Structures are given as structure tokens and as C-alpha cells.
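User: Quick sanity check before I run a bigger batch. Here is a single chain. Can you write out its predicted 3D structure?
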Amino acid sequence: MKLRLHFVVDPMGWLCISVVFGIWLYNTFFIPKLVLLPHYNEGHIPWAIVVCYYIASALCIAALFRASTADPGRLPVDPKIPHSEREHWELCNKCNLMRPKRSHHCSRCGHCVRRMDHHCPWINNCVGEDNHWLFLQLCFYAQVLSLFTLVLDFCQYYYFQPLTGLDQEKFTTRHELALLRVSALMGLVMFGGMTSLFYTQMTGILSDTTTIEKMANFSSEIFGSKRSWQWALAEVCGTRWKVLWLIPLP
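Assistant: Done. Predicted structure follows.
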């Protein structure tokens, strides 16, 4: 399946996604340099922990790239509507184009998106039918990476043995206070925010209700009854193979 890149021209969105990328880069560079690699070199931690951290970091940035560049489900200018489905389409009063019901016009992107959940400035893209699973992956991997970072920061303070190859007083003054505490603060904020967002997204998926519909006080009973979590996630991710739900590839 060919990858189709989708970019939104929005300076505010570029700023937001740059902040997210900066947080990822900060923790991906400083945590291995100050905690993982020095303790691994002195035999305090196994190589598996180092590998797992880099894998979580790679999956997080891959999910961020895919969620921000994937087409969320933009409708074409002249859609071909099957005659049997015409009753499930409606006219958009903003762009005057036909769209399926439960689609929404994004004022930020300037077009309609199928089953649009919301526009997220942190990925500079809409979250819709075609990239909802990628946004869910991003929330999940951001939780994993931020929790991993918090655990490593905690272990650096209270659990790991002192590094014999470094001047501890100089390390504490230059790095521990200035860098690791900032990393811990960012990890705490990211973990709390992503956990809340992931929970909100999962409740919406299980109840078959988008964020826009929740804000408009729509009931999930309008669109269907609650389904099992396996069926709901399979519909969002496009496959019943659960292992593929975790891979940010088509």
C-alpha cells in the first residue's frame, strides 16, 4: 500500500508539533547519554533495557510522523456516491460538497473529513476515519516512553549505584539538577496528558461517538449500541490482527 503524505499549512500547528518533537528529542538524547549508557557501560543495567528504550522512542516518533502526515479521510471534490447510499449523505453548508453523515468540516484545514473526531494542533492534522488508529498509537507510545523516562529518572535518584567513572559532585551540579529534573517534569506532564487523552479516545471508540459528537451532546445510541473492545478497535485499525494494531504502518 502506497504511503500518501498529507500536510496542513498552519503556522500554529507547526509550532505545536515542533514542541512535541523537541520534547521527544530532549528525552531521547539526554536520558541515554546521562542514565542508560553510563550505567550500562558499568554493568548496572542489562542491554535489554537500553534496546527497549530506543524501540519505544522509535515507535513514538514513527507514530507522530504517520499521524501528522497521514490523510485523515479528506473527501474528494466530486465524490462518486452509490445510489444505494445516497440517503446516508448530506450537503455541507460550508464547502457545498456532498459528504457522508458523521463527517465534519474542519475550519482549520478547510475541507470535510470522514468521521472526523477532532483537529489536533499537536500533530497539525485532523483525526478522522483514516488516521484515528495512528493517533491512538501515538497516545499509547507517548505514554510508554514518558513512563519509561519517569522510571529511569526515579532510578537515577534512588536506585542505581553511583557511577565510578564520573565526578559525582560535578554530575549532580551540571546534569542531574539541570537536565534530569526537567526530563522528569516533562515526563510527568506528558504521561498525565497522554493517559487522559488515551482514556477519552478509548471511551469514544467503545461507545462509537466522536469527540465532536460528545461536544455537541449527541448520544451514542443515535449511531449504534456499544460493541466489544475487540470489534471496536478492529474497526478503527482496519484489521482483526491485534499485533498489527501496534505497528504504525499501513
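The mean pLDDT is 82.

User: Great, the batch can go ahead then.
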